[in-house]
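Hi everyone, sorry if this is the wrong subforum. Our group has a chain we'd like a structural model of before ordering constructs, and none of us has done structure prediction before. Sequence below.
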Amino acid sequence: MESIGHTKEKQLLGRLIKSGNIPHAILFSGPKKIGKKKIAIEFIKSIFCTNRPSGWGFCSECYSCRNIDSNTIPDFSIICPEDESKEIKIEQIRDLQEKFCLTSFSGGYKAGIVDDAHLMNHHSQNSFLKTLEEPKGKTVLVLITDRPDSLLPTINSRVQNMKFSILPKKEIEDYLITLGASAEKAKGISAISSGQIGKAIDYFTSPEKKEWFEKIISDLIDLKISKLNKKFAYSKEKSENYEEMIEMLEIWERYFRKELLTKIMKPEEDQQFNYSTQKIKNIIKKIGQSKYLIENTNSSKKLVLDELVMEL
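Answer:
Right subforum, don't worry. Here is the predicted structure as tokens:
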């Protein structure tokens, strides 16, 4: 099934294809799980498709389309972290560079997608920079990230940046209904997915993920009235699973942003956290700082969470 939304971005990419002036490197930046990778793959399919119209479009049936979907076409590569290190290593970048030095199998473009490009380590980014500085023939690279500031300034300056935003709730609701959700369920899932179509699909296809989301919110409300020993026990438990910890912090951040919006726009409404506007702003700032420390430094994850839960 094709991606939904982001019509303006697709139109712009289509015009680039139609004009023949496809940039050597494009950066797709924006929040997680909003469809950036899917659109990147569709962009490459639109370039390679032998039956496509002029501009954006693909048949999904030709050799190129089918093999791009399965990542088995010689002229196309997807790079992402391979193991638990959560890094894109220099060896992966060198492999891509070697492929780009070869003659195109189809006689046309060679393409690569670097997913979660911010996870390139320092050596990988410096090696990748050489690819940007010395492009080989008809090549196109798409970097995907929700953290463009983590890329070297020299990389950011050499790519065309295309920013993607969250999707409207109505688009997510309509899409979930096409998957078989009732109107009521689609509306409920859309409300908690924060405009992230990937999360909405996860919540619909994997009910346990929606239940986990609801438990995180319930735990957050409980932590407000919990004693310090219980708060510290909770932070110890959550610090032991990196992926869940980051997801939890993102849920907390979205929750308090919603609380802040309600506080400002509808001050008469009751809130679970009867905090002042400044207190909520401080918590949001603290969550952001905690995410940064956990993702970018060697700080103790438990100590970072300990400091955060004391703010609740």
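For your construct planning: The first strand starts at residue 25 and ends at 29. The chain has a mean pLDDT of 90.
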